[in-house]
Amino acid sequence: MTTRQASSRSDATSGAKPGSSILVIAVRPDDIDHIGHVNNAVYLRWTQDAVVHHWERIADPEAVARYLWVALKHEITYRRPAFLGDAILAHTHLQTAGGAKARFQTMIQRGQEVLAQVDSLWCCIDRDSRRAVRLPRLTLARFTALA
User: Per UniProt, what is one GO molecular function of this protein (predicted)?
Assistant: First the structure.
């Protein structure tokens, strides 16, 4: 799912720090599990949406059209539950980038309260061949100038 396809998500990047982006997320009824809070797996979907949003915001249109990102690893620290009706912000920041890989940190928050911290490793792939590719110098420069 991309951020453009997700009706419950919107851009709040104007309030983001340089090198970061913010994705506004509304908790939907199908995000809720049998315990009555957002299911842990939903945080992964939100993280994916947030990282893709970050990529689309920072990379030039040619790079966005040519490359995709696939997750290699996620480490999630859950701190507080989210509930139906909550307004959630996913703050994404590039930590490092080089070669075909990039590390992102996504802080999922309700107001100033951190609900989860997600540290993830991603690999850049060519859209057509589906093979890992080194980030082009210009794209890497755009990423690292903002990190």
Answer: fatty acyl-CoA hydrolase activity
Residues 6+ apart with CB under 8 A from 80: 110, 113, 114, 115, 116
What residue ranges do the domains of the chain occupy?
A: 9-146
pTM, two decimal places: 0.84
Domain spanning 9-146: CATH superfamily? Hotdog Thioesterase (3.10.129.10)
29 neighbors 84 (Cβ within 8 angstroms): yes
Burial of 101 per CB tally in 10 Å (0-12, 13-18, 19+)? middle
Query: What are the helix (H) ranges across the chain?
Result: 40-58, 61-66, 137-146
- Tens of pLDDT, residue by residue over 75-117, are 999 999 999 999 999 999 999 999 999 999 999 999 999 999 9
Helix axes 137-146, 40-58, angle to 10 degrees: 110
Q: In 3D, which of 142, 136, 120, 145 has the Cα closest to residue 58?
A: 142
Residue pLDDT, tens place only, 34-49: 999 999 999 999 999 9
DSSP code at position 17: P
